[in-house]
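thought: user wants a sequence for this fold. calling inverse folding tool.
action: design(structure=
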């Protein structure tokens, strides 16, 4: 039995049904660059944003990015449950802070930090912040040393390969440090240990070694750099530390190249950074930095603040930071363990080497690297062709693939290459799909006798 409703007693919004497919927010113009005057239903706002983002590329087909594009549903659930947690608020979220501490310890052990000294580290928004922290510590320690010797401390320099990520150039500019670059030579696109040592002097705050160059995926020879600096110290008395930028390789080498000497087993390596959101297998953005010894992090870089009822030490550049990615990182450590990470990274490397071998077999291409360090490889054209790699990149984009074409760094800017990053979730089946599309592209170029090849492009985001 239902009682008759007096329509006159109802408010306007109670008297009307808003049609699902003809809502105001979906039928009237909405300003793009200023805030709308009125509000709209949540679903209307969702549909507007969702539909615009459909124009983005498929992240799983993005072979340019190192960033993780797939996680398990359980990891997504952990992140959904922790999106509201601010990592800086350790007093209110003590267990999330405990999870961060556990992750730092796991990484310190993974990177062979000595057990007889106290290592220290923290999470960051990504490797860019982590490298800044590592480099700041190098500068501060160098300055302490110079002042103790009563020497000038106003002209620091940092030695690195020309293949470094742009964050290192940013550090030098932001913190007034002279960058000294080891340039590419012929088919060497990474740092040369002896040349790096020759660039050092008493004002060198450190040498940067890259475990997984973004240009071709190669490891830099950290052990040989260390040995060259050992010889330099014997000759000149300059004790120059190493920071290892292991943005990608920090989560590859411990599982695929266990005997490779690159980490804290080398006493000259004072700090290491890695990206949890790259081969750490977490959605962006989380990075990590660990110092070999707590003494390697100057006290001047630690700040003690009272925040929401608790006193704490902080040495990250950012203040508020997401807790969700840290919880997701810990999920991966528990879920996969050493055995699982080895399987995942080996599967990525297998696909990378399968792709590089078959791309080489196609004929026009020469490999720069094959994916045997991190699962990243690059290739160039063997000789002059009627098409360019920029053309091939554009053609593949028509099929949804994002495969960057770009010039190599200064001193080898004559060389144009393409690069593929193989990540978790990129299967052999998808690799075969890509190979078929490359072959289809080559057939298309062969069928165009008057093709005007493209000489420049802007696909690469270094």
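)
observation: tool returned 462 residues.
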């Amino acid at each position: 039995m239902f009682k008759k409703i007096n329509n006159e007693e109802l408010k306007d919004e109670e008297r009307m049904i808003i049609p699902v497919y003809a809502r105001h927010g979906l039928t009237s113009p909405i300003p793009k660059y200023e805030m709308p005057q009125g509000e709209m239903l949540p679903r209307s706002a969702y549909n507007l944003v969702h539909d615009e983002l459909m124009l983005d590329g498929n992240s799983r087909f993005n072979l340019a990015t190192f960033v993780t594009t797939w996680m398990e549903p359980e990891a997504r659930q952990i992140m959904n449950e922790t999106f509201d947690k601010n990592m800086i608020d350790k007093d209110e979220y003590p267990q999330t802070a405990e999870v961060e501490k556990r992750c730092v310890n796991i990484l310190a052990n993974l990177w062979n930090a000595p057990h007889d000294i106290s290592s220290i580290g923290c999470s960051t928004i990504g490797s860019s912040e982590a490298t800044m922290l590592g480099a700041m510590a190098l500068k501060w320690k160098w300055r302490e040393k110079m002042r103790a010797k009563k020497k000038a401390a106003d002209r620091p320099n940092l030695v690195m390969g020309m293949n470094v990520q742009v964050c290192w150039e940013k550090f030098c500019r932001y913190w007034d440090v002279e960058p000294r670059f080891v340039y590419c030579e012929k088919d060497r696109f990474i740092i040369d240990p002896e040349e790096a040592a020759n660039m050092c002097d008493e004002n060198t705050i450190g040498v940067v070694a890259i475990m997984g160059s973004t240009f071709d995926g190669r490891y830099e020879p950290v052990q040989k750099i260390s040995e060259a600096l050992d010889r330099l110290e014997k000759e000149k008395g300059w004790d120059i530390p190493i920071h290892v930028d292991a943005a990608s390789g920090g989560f590859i080498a411990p599982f695929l190249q266990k005997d490779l000497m690159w980490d804290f087993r080398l006493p000259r390596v004072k700090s290491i950074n890695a990206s949890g959101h790259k081969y750490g297998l977490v959605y962006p953005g989380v990075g990590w930095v660990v110092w070999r010894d707590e003494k390697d992090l100057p006290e001047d870089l630690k700040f003690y603040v009272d925040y929401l009822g608790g006193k704490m030490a902080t040495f990250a550049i950012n203040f508020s930071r997401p807790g969700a990615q840290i919880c997701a990182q810990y999920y991966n450590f528990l879920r996969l363990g050493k055995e699982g990470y080895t399987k995942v990274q080996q599967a990525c490397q297998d696909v990378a080497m399968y792709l590089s071998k078959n791309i080489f077999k196609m004929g026009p291409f020469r490999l720069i690297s094959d994916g045997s360090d991190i699962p990243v490889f690059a290739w160039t054209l063997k000789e002059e062709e009627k098409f360019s790699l920029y053309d091939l990149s554009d053609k593949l984009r028509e099929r949804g693939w994002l495969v960057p074409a770009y010039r190599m760094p200064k001193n080898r800017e004559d060389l144009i290459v393409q690069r593929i990053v193989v990540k978790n979730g990129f299967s052999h089946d998808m690799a075969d799909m890509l190979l078929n599309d490359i072959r289809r592209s080559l057939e298309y170029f062969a069928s165009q006798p008057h093709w005007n090849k493209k000489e420049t492009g802007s696909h690469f985001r270094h």
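thought: summarizing for user.
answer: Here is the designed sequence. The chain has three domains: 16-56, 77-332, 346-446.
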